[in-house]
Q: What sequence folds into this?
């Protein structure tokens, strides 16, 4: 390219051609950009390769015994327990004695476009709906990949964080129905402030279908602030279960887990058989072992004193509005 210097008035200024100078400067700039790109790729490769495998990282295991066990994971199975390789040698801890297994991984917030799904058994998942139909929806998660969630297992759907913040004041409409019979129907809060009542019959990547008194209504998923579904509690399987806290996709219950150095294969209570990288697991708690949380037990009976003749269903680990307990 041939270029002429210009003066303040935009007209060509007197002086020699700058062709050779511009070519030289452009070549030097390209060389520097190439060198910077190579350095960036090399640094990213070094950082990725520097991440140690889960077998080389020390885990912290709390059991029913006062002693805290530390060591490198050899194997972990929900049926038998785990084996640690510590400084004092190998140690086996049976499943019934385990309270919590902690890894160096930390929980990070869900993505700005992710939905939050709460299941009737207390599990919750973060991700984006990529498919579905009348019986189930497909959720794309960062830790477990694509999994199926049955509509009957859903208790609540929360929209993106930014949407919830804008409609924070109106979210209480879902937990405080105006009519008593509204507790037995699904309720959807939309971005325009309206509340749609009925029964959710289908959910896919683009919309959610509700069968209401006005007929079948299809609402775009992007217009949903939150939804509360009146489903029945999911039955808990017998025997010990593993409660997995994931790095970016929530907390799920698994009946089986086979965790080795490279992969962690799990069978979820929701019915999915999935696998994840071990570094995507933050912690594992054992439910149904020797250590029992009171909130995991179902009371034989509960007694309440109604205020203004308002009856509230029994809720575990929450107040009557479904909010966290405060002392």
A:
């Amino acid at each position: 390219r041939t270029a002429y210097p210009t003066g303040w008035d935009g007209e060509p200024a007197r002086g020699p051609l700058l062709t050779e100078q511009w070519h030289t400067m452009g070549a030097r700039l390209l060389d520097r950009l190439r060198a910077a790109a190579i350095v960036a790729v090399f640094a990213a490769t070094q950082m990725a390769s520097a991440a140690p495998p889960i077998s080389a990282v020390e885990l912290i295991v709390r059991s029913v015994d006062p002693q805290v066990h530390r060591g490198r994971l050899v194997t972990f199975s929900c049926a038998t327990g785990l084996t640690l390789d510590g400084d004092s040698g190998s140690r086996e801890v049976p499943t019934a004695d385990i309270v919590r297994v902690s890894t160096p991984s930390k929980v990070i917030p869900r993505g700005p476009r992710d939905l939050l799904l709460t299941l009737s058994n207390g599990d919750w998942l973060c991700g984006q709906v990529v498919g579905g139909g009348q019986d189930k929806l497909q959720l794309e998660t960062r830790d477990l990949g694509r999994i199926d969630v049955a509509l009957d297992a859903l208790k609540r759907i929360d929209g993106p964080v930014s949407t919830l913040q804008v409609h924070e004041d109106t979210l209480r409409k879902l937990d405080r129905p105006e009519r008593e019979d509204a507790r037995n129907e699904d309720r959807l809060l939309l971005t325009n402030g309206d509340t749609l009542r009925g029964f959710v019959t289908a959910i896919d990547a683009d919309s959610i279908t509700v069968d209401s008194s006005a007929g079948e209504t299809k609402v775009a998923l992007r217009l949903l602030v939150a939804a509360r579904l009146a489903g029945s509690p999911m039955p808990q399987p017998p025997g010990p279960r593993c409660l997995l806290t994931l790095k970016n996709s929530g907390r799920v219950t698994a009946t089986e887990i086979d965790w080795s150095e490279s992969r962690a294969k799990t069978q979820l209570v929701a019915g999915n058989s999935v696998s994840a990288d071990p570094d995507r697991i933050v912690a594992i708690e054992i439910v149904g072992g020797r250590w029992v949380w009171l909130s995991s037990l179902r009371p034989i009976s509960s007694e309440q004193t109604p205020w203004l003749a308002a009856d509230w269903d029994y809720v575990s680990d929450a107040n009557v509005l479904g909010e966290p307990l405060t002392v």
Observations:
- The mean pLDDT is 78.
- The helical segments are 19-50, 161-166, 172-175.
- The longest helix spans residues 19-50.
